[in-house]
Amino acid sequence: xxxxxxxxxxxxxxxxxxxxxxxxxxxxxxxxxxxxxxxxxxxxxxxxxxxxxxxxxxxxxxxxxxxxxxxxxxxxxxxxxxxxxxxxxxxxxxxxxxxxxxxxxxxxxxxxxxxxxxxxxxxxxxxxxxxxxxxxxxxxxxxxxxxxxxxxxxxxxxxxxxxxxxxxxxxxxxxxxxxxxxxxxxxxxxxxxxxxx
Length: 197
Fold this sequence. Notes:
The protein is α+β, with helices and mostly antiparallel strands. 40% of the residues lie in helices and 20% in strands.
């Protein structure tokens, strides 16, 4: 794991708080862990605002959640997610020392507006600057399995401007640039309809 000083230095240079930068740092490693998981690497397709930030626009706003379209709908289930994410978190801990306490992983499966199963999860972590105790920060996961991709997924490189970037970088299966951008516009349009409706 990088030092808290490196987080503070990046925060100072970017005009952000250390906790926002730490979350960005942990997000990068969580993406690495998902890509390193044989069962998830090609089935979970990264999308949304964090995908735009981490794969296409380095200066785009910092995001706090990870959105994925899943090719296999059977992955949306509490027992599968607990087992799969346990392996991901253990692997990240072995490589970095970032802790993901098991009791701070929550997965809520629900029916989305299209009548299909979806999941919203939260994964707590302890990184270089997060305080010990039960109030550790969390990363939100949004998982759906019913979105149709127009273009084939891409293998994108995760932007990770920290000193511990792995030798092979951080690849992730993601929406193509065109699809990621179009999906974000669609999501913003849906939110506008909900607010104004």
